[in-house]
Amino acid sequence: MKRASYSILTVAAIAVLAGAAARGAVTVRWLALVVPYAAFATFVLGMSWRVIVWSLAPAPFRIPTVCGQQKALRWIKPDRLESPPDTLAVVGRMALEVLLFRSLFRNTRMTLREGPRLVFGENKFLWLGAMAFHWSLLVILVRHLRLFLEPVPAFVLAVEKLDGFFQVGTPVMYVTDGVVVAALVYLFQRRLRDPLVRYISLFTDYFALALLGAIALSGIWMRYVGRVDITGIKQFALGLVAFRPVALPASGDSFFVHLILVSTLAAYFPFSKLVHMGGVFLSPTRNLANNNRSKRHVNPWNYPVRVHTYDEWEEEFHDKLEAAGLPIERK
Ligand code: HEM
User: Fold this and answer.
1) 293 Cα to the center of ligand 1, angstroms
2) Gyration radius of the chain over CA positions
3) Domain, as residue range, for 83
């Protein structure tokens, strides 16, 4: 409980500090330009560093995690997805993992009942929460492209229209705004509710969720309550992207808080568990084909080793073995 509270307090402190800084017109103008660039640079350099380190890690063996029949003799039916024999099957399995969180779908819950009896049951809620969160986030990020691109691409307008399908309220409420907050609340309370998950949850587990929640809530505030100057913000965002910065619009306090929270997330990303976004593609247990039997793999580190054969050993200790009455192969 302490870790969860500290994470919420830390995020709240960042938001309050940003809110306070927004009061000082000069500071805010300066910060609104420096912080996003510094955060973006940290994100790009940090992620590149991570990917370079991962790709340089030696992978002499094929270690895919498989849970299906490997390709073998012609009359034995292989499971191409569970035990992918080639790159095409690896791409298929990876796509299902990244887009549908297939492995999480098989999540089970273990409980000890009276007897004692160990019972395994389905647990689809984590999968549902994770899917709801990640897909909503993707849709929100795609919709945000309208702030950075002029003219706004047709697919962004289409996603916006679809997300506001129910045409409720003015401005129209987006389905993903509700779903992302609900999913984050579920994921946060899941860590608190289950004593086992709570035990292994660290400050950083809660912090990532709290930060994402604060970003979503500040965005929602801007759209539905604060009613910010969206044209001025778009000018500011376009200026950032084109490296021709313009000043923040007046009355952009809540936007400044949103921006600082997003910058915090961007700078924190490469050093947090959130790097799984890139890491999943570089995981050797997922991105390797299981062709251990069909192809010969030679360990690149193999070098000639001076070995001591059994014959040599027996020769060396021949007299002692004989004296002890131990069986000897060569008389
Ligand atoms: C991780 C990144 C981000 C997340 C998760 C996020 C999330 C959100 C959410 C949930 C909303 C509520 C309304 C909506 O869904 O459109 C919103 C609104 C908004 N966000 Fe973000 N945001 C992010 C990054 C940014 C960035 C980088 C900018 C600009 C530089 C920005 C500017 C805005 C603005 C101006 C609104 C109000 C939109 C309106 O009134 O229609 N956001 N954001």
Assistant:
1) 50
2) 28
3) 2-323
